[in-house]
């Protein structure tokens, strides 16, 4: 799977590099070999359950969750951290009892972004949905979090936990940045892609933002 956007499907206006080169499929991610393997296998035999994708910012947790929903051809419901309250959780849960409007597979995927920042009431509401004796049918919950210290042990015990790490990513990220540079300019770059990867602490989004500044200066 190509890491780069299809020029025939490009929009007529420019996108930030972090969005333009955002992976749309699970196997398009750089690094994250274990995470790709686990979620690709799950996508082939999905079951109703809850996942917790945990790790530092910029590692692709939310993007991976979206890619999983797309791979499942599911109806995706997204709850950002600022809106993760008991009322939103309840309303989203109700939607999952309906036949999916857009996903032909019949699945619902609920992505709760930065679940570690949600209110206590929202966390209790989520627990009640995960513990329900009559859970929403064909529904997969995917929570992302930077850390788990604010999440109750009861909540963690109901999730399949998949950790995201930037360990060993630097060389792959540097190579990816070089490919993006060539795709954008048509020439090999004369900048230190390894340094950009290192200075970004292997945060792909931050590295692409830095590369965008270098492209403007070129």
Question: Could you characterize what this model shows?
Answer:
This protein folds into 2 domains: 32-163, Rossmann fold (3-Layer(aba) Sandwich), CATH 3.40.50.300; 168-217. Helices cover 41% and strands 12% of the residues. A 5-stranded parallel β-sheet has the order 2-3-4-1-5, with helices on both faces. It has helices at 17-20, 33-44, 61-71, 86-95, 120-131, 153-156, 170-185, 193-199, 204-217; strands spanning 49-54, 75-79, 108-112, 139-145, 160-163. It is built from 9 helices and 5 strands, in the order ααβαβαβαβαβααα. It has 218 residues and is α/β, with parallel strands linked by helices. The model is unreliable at 6-11 (pLDDT under 50).
Number of extended strands: 5
User: Gap between N and C termini, in Å?
Assistant: 29 Å
Relevant CATH superfamily of the largest domain: P-loop containing nucleotide triphosphate hydrolases
Bin the helical content: 40-55%
Itemize the secondary structure elements and their pairings.
Blueprint lengths: L16 H4 L12 H12 L4 E6 L6 H11 L3 E5 L6 H10 L12 E5 L7 H12 L7 E7 L7 H4 L3 E4 L6 H16 L7 H7 L4 H14 L1
Parallel strand pairs: 1-4, 1-5, 2-3, 3-4
